[in-house]
Amino acid sequence: MSAVLSLITLVTLQGATLATDSLTFAPPRGPVAAAPFRSYEPDPWTADTAARRPRAIEHSDFYYVRLDIHRYASYAIVPTFITEYALGQSLYNNPPGSSGTRTAHSIVAVGLVGLFGLNTVTGVWNLWDSRHESQGRARRYIHAALMLASDAGFVATEAVAPGRRLALRDPSRRTLHRTLALSSMGLALGGYGMMLIWK
After folding, report:
1. Predicted confidence (pLDDT) at residue 168 exceeds the cutoff of 90
2. How far apart are CA 75 and CA 163, in angstroms?
3. More confident of the two residues 59 and 68
4. Which residue has the higher pLDDT, 22 or 85?
5. 194, 139 contact by CB (below 8 A)
6. pLDDT reported for residue 83
7. What number is the average pLDDT over the span 21-48?
8. Which residues contact 141 (CB under 8 A, 6 or more apart)?
9. 19 within a domain of the structure (yes/no)
10. How many domains is the chain built from?
11. Half-sphere exposure of 10 (CA within 13 A, CB side)
């Protein structure tokens, strides 16, 4: 009987030892792959290659003075266009027109030359100063192209302007003068309008 009890005790102790060994976690043998580590801190070695904020463009005080001159001269262009168109249409419908109307037409034309000369100088100067500024660049260049084309159109308009005698003898010259003038006004108003809409 004691031998049976001894055998049972031995088997029980041996089973407990096996159970304890099965719960023991031994480190695996051989190379172990490291768990992936994700860092959420900025890498100081790659910080310089990260996208940088665009550099601010600074303009001189004189740039803004020219811009104000350009803007206020532009405001005067539209009423000047209206006045010149009314005088020119009167001369076109009743050639050669009265001397007072012809004189007024010439005076307003000189005023337009002055306004366009002022705006051309200030506009081209500021366009050059802002050449490194990417924001709104396409709009500025389109505006400049329209206004310079208008300048050229007004030069051509003046070149074909009929005198008092020629206005009576050659109606086609009057028509060409009027067509060039209206086309140049249209280009200028297009450039003016786009800058009002897309400031």
Report:
1. no
2. 30
3. 68
4. 85
5. yes
6. 96
7. 52
8. 127
9. no
10. 1
11. 6
Quickly list DSSP for the chain: -HHHHHHHHHHHHHHHHHHHHHH--PPPSS--PPPP----SPPTTTGGGSPPPPPPP---HHHHHHHHHHHHHHHHHHHHHHHHHHHHHHHHHSTT--HHHHHHHHHHHHHHHHHHHHHHHHHHHHHHHTTT--TTHHHHHHHHHHHHHHHHHHHHHHHT---HHHHHH-HHHHHHHHHHHHHHHHHHHHHHHHHHH--
Maximum Cα interatomic distance, the chain, rounded to a whole number of Å: 153
Domain membership flag for residue 104: yes
> Within a domain: residue 138?
yes
In contact, 146 and 187? CB cutoff 8 Å? yes
DSSP 35-92: PP----SPPTTTGGGSPPPPPPP---HHHHHHHHHHHHHHHHHHHHHHHHHHHHHHHH
Taking 70 as the threshold, does the pLDDT of residue 22 lie above it?
Answer: no
Residue ranges making up the domain that contains 88: 61-197
**pTM of the predicted structure, to 2 decimals:** 0.65
Torsion of CA 98, 100, 106, 110, to 10 degrees: -170
Q: pLDDT-based confidence at 147, cuts 50/70/90?
A: very high
